[in-house]
Amino acid sequence: EADIYQTPRYLVIGTGKKITLECSQTMGHDKMYWYQQDPGMELHLIHYSYGVNSTEKGDLSSESTVSRIRTEHFPLTLESARPSHTSQYLCASRGPQPDTQYFGPGTRLTVL
Amino acid sequence: AQSVTQLDSHVSVSEGTPVLLRCNYSSSYSPSLFWYVQHPNKGLQLLLKYTSAATLVKGINGFEAEFKKSETSFHLTKPSAHMSDAAEYFCVVSVGPSGGSYIPTFGRGTSLIVHP
What we know:
The complex is a heterodimer.
Chain A: E1 4-7, E2 10-13, E3 19-25, E4 31-37, E5 43-51, E6 54-57, E7 65-66, E8 76-78, E9 87-94, E10 101-103, E11 107-111
Parallel strand pairs in A: 2-11
Antiparallel strand pairs in A: 1-3, 3-8, 4-5, 4-9, 5-6, 7-8, 9-10, 9-11
Chain B: E1 2-6, E2 10-14, E3 19-21, E4 23-27, E5 32-38, E6 44-50, E7 56-58, E8 64-68, E9 73-78, E10 87-94, E11 105-106, E12 110-115
């Protein structure tokens, strides 16, 4: 059973607010990922990290930023939320072997 | 380069009938292949994975998939659908040296609808 957590699970917020979506894993995995997913649609990689102090942008351009100061923690921040940021955000981690990614339950963000 | 194509955006079956979700991939190297399931408002759960061992892979909940290199396919099957199988299914391909860095590529997803 994978141990990867995301908080909050649901968030409704007004335009212009700063928000941080939390993701934590207790498996000691080096690689972590953030995906954005609109309802019923595919996943788009927005950020990933190969370890502490490593962050990279993914395929989908995003106004969010991430940090990786600790192995277990990979928060995603939106400095100024907009309605176009309304989506589900999924966090995942992966260890060295096997190749499996483990996903958190997701954060469903609504920006009014 | 790698890519994955899920050939059907929606598959509709009756309860108790077989399920077939199709996935084709392309990869420059020997790939690892995965199927994930996502129930509404949930994260993704691993159903099964192929990592160059047996070509017929058995997963959870009675699902299985067969890796066919000659056809570059990794179709997901189940002999008898259950109502609880209704969900979104994602095929994923990844390549990379063992333990090395890689970015997995997701298919667009197939929505499985199960009728009573």
